[in-house]
Amino acid sequence: MVDVLTISIDEKIDIKKTIDDELNNIYKICNYRTNNDFKMLLYIYFNNNYYYIYGKVRGVKKYLSNIILPDTGKIYGSICVIKMENKKIIPIEETEWEPLYKYIQYSSENNYLKLEIEEYISD
Question: What is the pLDDT of residue 22?
Fold first, then answer.
């Protein structure tokens, strides 16, 4: 089992245990009943690691998240942050979220993130 981060709408961080083959059901880690409107919001390479951020892009107003990610629009409910290596989930720690989130915000403001995402898509 490995650790995955979930971040609630009020930015409370929790660690959840998962197994590699649960990647298809990642929405369940965020406590969603279905995967409707649940998708990968962002892929990023940071500090020699790959991070995938998943969440819902539609929902009820009362579940609107305080987390802002570039080019995603509004996010509803919890998000899930997964750290991967060689297509396998690897453990992540709570302390990784804050610097990652700051990097996302900084990179977005300076258009670095857009270039990184475009490079990934073109590969």
Answer: 59
Q: State CA 91 to chain mean position distance.
A: 14
The predicted model gives 105-113 an average pLDDT of 65
Confidence (pLDDT) at 95: 93
Range of the domain at 22: 2-122
Residue 41: the pLDDT is 92
Helix (H, G, I), strand (E, B) or coil at 110: coil
Q: How many domains does the chain have?
A: 1
- What DSSP line would sit under 17-72, residue for residue? EE-GGGGGGHHHHTT-SS-TTEEEEEEEEETTEEEEEEEESS--GGGB-S---TT-
